[in-house]
């Protein structure tokens, strides 16, 4: 049955649509790629060129838009999923880095606390010996040794167990400062 005989019949018989051939599909795809919407003039023109009823052209456009939208949503979803996966991976790396830095900070605070305790004990013992002698040179000597000790402790804190400031060949450029 052709389209005209289907329309003229008043009974509800199911009319079978003709399948589109490759040339018709190619022309519809080209037309769709230039404009996703189909106005009535373009629909009539395409229907005439393809030898199809205008309603079939309109339905093809409607279905094509639905498939196109579904595909673009799928692509968008995959893109967003990849971005989420990357963000979660970065988040895990940052959590590990924060934990490592917290441990390093705690270690350095312990060293600093130990240094302050040691310095206070050394100062009181030097201070008592200087009081006996009555010399200001003892205090100057103590301040200089305290400063050198602070430098060594500070560099040791910076370098840590991992040797962050060492070079790849194992040479530590702070080594001369620490000795």
UniProtKB/TrEMBL annotation:
**Keyword vocabulary terms for this entry:** Coiled coil, DNA-binding, Homeobox, Nucleus, Transcription, Transcription regulation
- Which InterPro entries does this UniProt record tie to the protein? HD, HDZip_class_I_plant, Homeobox_CS, Homeodomain-like_sf, HTH_motif
* Entry superkingdom: Eukaryota
Give the main location: nucleus
Cell location: Nucleus
Q: Which residues bind DNA?
A: 19-72
Q: Does the keyword Transcription regulation apply?
A: yes
Record domain Homeobox: where: 17-71
Coiled-coil parts of chain:
70-111
Summarizing the function annotation, the protein's role is:
Transcription factor.
Please report which protein family the annotation says this sequence is part of: Belongs to the HD-ZIP homeobox family. Class I subfamily.
- What is the protein's name according to its record? Homeobox-leucine zipper protein
**Which organism was this protein described from?**
Solanum pennellii
The lineage is: Eukaryota, Viridiplantae, Streptophyta, Embryophyta, Tracheophyta
